Structure formats: C-alpha cells, structure tokens
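Researcher: Next entry in the queue.
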Amino acid sequence: MDYYLHIGTLLIIYLLLAQSMNIYLGYTGILALSHIAFYGIGAYSGALISLNFGNFWLGFVVGGLLAAALGFLLGLTSIKLKADYLGIATLGFAQIIHSIMQNWDDLTRGPLGLPGIPRPTIFGLQLTEKLHYFIFTAIISTVLMYIMYRIIKSPFGQILETIRDDEIAIQSLGKNTTRYKLAAFSLGAMIAAFAGTLMAHLVTYIDPSSFHTNELAIILVMVVLGGLGTFRGPFIGVSVVILIQEGVTFIPWIPAQYVGATQMILFSLFFLLVMIYFPQGIGGYWKYKKRRRKQFTQY
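Model: Structure for this entry, 299 residues:
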C-alpha cells in the first residue's frame, strides 16, 4: 500500500510540474528550457529552510517567490529571443543553477546533498505517514491546479494563446506581449518551485543529480506527449510516463542493470509513435477532433 501511495504522490507532483511548464510552453509558445532549474530552486529552498528553521510553509513560499523573481529576471533578459536562441539561453541558466547546487558546498553540501529533510507539521501532527502526505499533496496540488485552470480560461489566458498563435496580431491591438510573456513565465517558474518543495519533503533527501538538465527531457516528454496547450494534456502525459517508468520494474526478465535503458527505449518509442499518429499530442488530438466536430455541426 505504501508503494502505491508513494507513486500516487509522485504522479501528483509531476502533474503540477508538467502543468506549470505547459502554461508558458504550451499556452504562450515560449520555448524555455529552464524549468528543471526552478524545480530545483524550490526543492533546495524548501529543504534548507525546513532543516534550519523547521518551517515548511516558509520554505514553500520563499522557494516560490525566489523562483518567480529569477524567472522574471531571466525572462526580462531573454524573452525577446526567438525559438532556438531562447531555448539555448534558458538551458544555460538551468546549467548555471545546477553548477551552484553542485559546487556551493557551504550552502548545498554539493554532491553529498541534503539528507533528513523533515516532513511538514500540520496542527502539531507531522506527516510521516505516506497516506497523510499523499492527502496533503493532493489538497495543495488541487488548489494550485484550480488556480491555473481559472487563469488559463480567463481573458488573460486567451491573450496568452493569441500570443502563441499570432503575436503580431495581438500587438496590433495595443497589447504589451512582453508583459504577458513575463507574467506567464514567472507563474510557471513559481508553480514549478512549489512542486520542487513538495518533492523534497516526499523523498526527504535531495542532491544535484535530481535537477540536472538531463531530467528536463522527462518533463518535456510529459508535456508534449499529453498535448501542448491543453489542460488535460499533462494528466495524460504524466500518467503514461509513470506507467512506463514503474511498469518496467515489474517485468521479471529484464535485469536490474538494464531497467533504466529499457525505460528510455520505451519512452522514445512511445513518443515517436505518438508524434507520428498524434502530432498535437494525445490530448491535443482530442481537442482537435472536438473542434472539427463542432465546426461540422454548425454547417
């Protein structure tokens, strides 16, 4: 039972992480590859404050605000870059953050990581039981997912989609697209940091290897596989990735040393098939079919 609760908690946190990336990558069309850095900032901020001050909520808020501030500054200096150039610039930022985690021994303990991260305490009850932490994570994630949903469905969210589809058209209406992009980027960074804090307190140990730029590929697969610019997309993408990742470990004829390689092969194969038959992603395909059906019924 504890295993399934642990996997369920992981799924919820990854869902929050993927949805936050979807805000600026899927809905706004910002090809930024720094998401893993904001995730790590939240994890380390939350862990350090919990270890030194014993206050989960302080670390949760500080990590989110720090990531939002750094996301705003990063966006301010690079948001006007186009496509690949923006991706390279933001990927460089992610690598800088990883280097800080790896080499600032006095703060992060470098490669040794931060062990013994305490679980949050709510009304005097420390959430050491996996069921308690699962419920706690589910409540926080539900609130944050609802906020993101309302933002996406608001006029603000519609402007973000218009920026993605035709930025020149929305500029001709007098909208400051840079301001909207910065807001979306900062919001995505903050939610990613919240997910990082929740993850750090779930596993109770973090080190720089968990936030290397190689891990960014998994997040991208989750978002693109489910469907960019669709709210249901991350639900599908995260579920598929977790199913493959954990399902491989139950196949008895795969030796333990080949589990990681098998997972990557299956990720690549499934991703390739989806891109061939569902170029918009699985959730994007449903959205496209629904739109076509609606247009057909109008005629």
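Model: The chain has a mean pLDDT of 85.
Researcher: Noted, moving on.
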